Amino acid sequence: MLLERFTEADYDTRVLALLVGLTGLPVVFSVVGYVSPRLLNFSYAPLGVAAFAIGVLFVADERFLAVRLTGDADEAVVFLDAAERIRDHNRAARDLFPELVGAVGDPIDSLAPIDSVPESEGALLERTDGGETRYYLVDNRTVGPEAADIRHVLAFTDVTAIERQRRELERHNDQLEGFAIWVRHELRNALTVVGGYSDLATEALADGDVEAATEALDTVSGTADRMNGTVDDLATLARHGRTIEWTEAVEFRETVTAAWAATGTSGLELAIEGEGTIEADGPRLRKLFENALEFYTHNGGSELTVSLREDGFAISDDGQPPPPDAAERCFDYGDAAPATSAGMALPNVRTLARVHGWSATIDPEYADGLRIVVAGAVVRETSVLAP
User: pTM of the entire structure?
Assistant: First the structure.
């Protein structure tokens, strides 16, 4: 039973196995004593038990304790001494950190990414492998005295699902908070404008000034349209603001063309560069393009180019570039956009990119207008890619 447990524990338990083997040696003595007068004929089993106990106590007590504490653990486990040198590790740890192979005796600070012993409970380790990021909760346990061969046990528990949910909830809460600030600001301003110009229209009609009343009511109507756009933005956020769980190969050119037709971008000339598909949620990707195109209709440009790239796409125009210190704030709900008539188009672009796991930024090196770069996407079947 002990030998089987040591084998399953997947640690260097050769010393322990030898001690267990010693417990069987007295059986040989007992047999010899039974058939030969050279040894006394009595049970030598207590000698084996005593040898095992003394060996565990004075030779391998720390390792025996470590196996007992972590032998049934499924998580990756690394053993360290008091000087933070690697003493042992299990198979799960080697699978997670191939750098551990042959590293017994090396200080842990020479081995990335686990190059330090966490001082606080609940340290989180981020590990990216094959394009997938996973998260591990690191538990640092002290299992032996200062001079022990094994002083620390590092256990790495996979908490990827929980951490992804936490980050998604945090992202969504930040997004809603920023959007709520913007909605409150927009609606308060809109109601002020509607109230003020309604009073002007009433006074103008009372004075018989139909032209002034008409102008005031036109302003009220335009403000109401803007409020309607705010409601549409809120609906977009509610419908498409959560992280997607399923994607498909979406045709790049067809999606851009459909978004262009739905936006009604008069006064702009569109050029589409690249052929291929993007792994995405089709309706959300189209909505992303619609919001981007809606923004560009208010950016003062005449030419618009949508280019497929190796890891996403870029949208560029020859219009007004953002101020250098405002490029990042353009994507924040609650902050002023470069073109206020575009509403929350740019923040919606970033939101719809993030629900796919992509990034959306403004290219600071593009000087001919404004360029939005969406990166992190999976692009397939592409014949032409923009640089």
Answer: 0.55
